[in-house]
């Protein structure tokens, strides 16, 4: 099989593969850093959801507040199921699902 390399016909395939792997590692690391959430940030997200749920329940209706709380509970349940299916164990799966569900708070609060 004749491959076309950007460096020309005398390119080293192993060097090109290593550059590709290094670029993919850097890209994946940047994505992990972007979506990384720590427990204090997730706690802040949970508190924001609780405050928003109470506020909406008081201002509009308790049914609307229950819909918001139920939506986040459903998101947590789905994230927990995915974490358990990806071979995480008990508390590790719960912690990962908690971070996924409420870790967005860092994006909206300073």
Q: Can you characterise this structure?
A:
The chain crosses the membrane at residues 41-60, 66-85. The chain has 110 residues and is mainly α. It is built from five helices and no strands. It is elongated and about 70 Å long. It has helices at residues 13-34, 39-59, 62-85, 90-102, 105-108. The N and C termini lie far apart (54 Å). Helix 2 (39-59) crosses helix 4 and helix 3 (62-85) packs across helix 4 (90-102).
Structural class: mainly alpha
Major sheet characteristics: none
Poorly predicted regions are none
Helix and strand element order: HHHHH
Helical content class = over 70%
Query: What amount of the residues lies in strands?
Result: under 5%
Please tell me the overall pLDDT: 83
Helix tally equals 5
Shape call: elongated
Say how many strands there are.
Answer: 0
Radius of gyration: 22 Å
Keywords: Membrane, Transmembrane, Transmembrane helix
Transmembrane segments: 41-60, 66-85
Protein name: DUF3040 domain-containing protein
How are the SSEs ordered, and which strands pair?
Elements: H1 13-34, H2 39-59, H3 62-85, H4 90-102, H5 105-108
Helix pairs in contact: 2-3, 2-4, 3-4
């Amino acid at each position: 099989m004749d491959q076309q390399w950007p460096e020309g016909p005398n390119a080293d395939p192993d060097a090109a593969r290593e550059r590709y792997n290094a670029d993919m590692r850097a890209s994946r690391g940047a994505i992990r850093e972007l979506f990384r959430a720590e427990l204090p940030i997730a706690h802040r997200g949970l508190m924001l959801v609780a405050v928003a749920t109470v506020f909406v329940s008081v201002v509009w209706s308790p049914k609307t507040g229950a819909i918001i709380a139920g939506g986040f509970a459903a998101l947590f349940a789905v994230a927990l199921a995915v974490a358990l299916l990806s071979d995480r164990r008990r508390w590790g799966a719960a912690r990962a699902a908690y971070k996924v569900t409420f870790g967005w708070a860092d994006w909206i609060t300073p």
